[in-house]
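quick one before i forget lol
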Amino acid sequence: MAKKKPVKTGPSPRANEPTEIPLNQQVCQRVKVMRRRKGWTLEQLASLSGVSRSMLSQIERGTCSPTLGVAYRIAQAFQLTLGELVDTATPSSRIDVIRSDDEAYLFRDDTHCRIRTLSPLQLEKEVEFYQLVLKPAGMLGSAAHFQGTREFLTVEKGRVRVTSADIHCELSKGDSAHYAADVPHEIQNIGRGEAILFLVDIYGRGGTGHH
């Protein structure tokens, strides 16, 4: 008797997508962190990645791990390679460099404000580092960040007024301040020229909010 040909079951893998192997929980948390840093809703990420909102929600909650195929589509939405999304190399194993002209790290650039991210986009972390340039009379206003978040600000050039909830102070070149950022807060240029600042966000575990 002739041997029966094997019958394939299940959907065929998409072209150019990796094998469907579940990834670890670190990647789940990284997706959540990067989405919030971008200011995207789950619906926006779903539209950009082609991954359903319900699956993205499960991934972010850690109730399911993305396959490589799903992670590939999520990485594309963030304009990262799959390797950058799932990379688990320890900080001591490499040096991450952010070049001054790398537009991928330009978070915002308009007539009032320019923000450059100085921390690697693909890494999961609770600390973010920014360079902030405010034009004369320019202001950066932020809603409350995650519960327990604090900001550390150093003025490289100019004069600014920092407000955290109903408390404010004025800072000049060389001054630093740290303040609660889990309440509405803002930084306003009160000088005649542009202000250049360095800003560090140290995030808490709960709540919502981002620049």
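fyi The CA atoms of residues 117 and 130 lie 5 Å apart.
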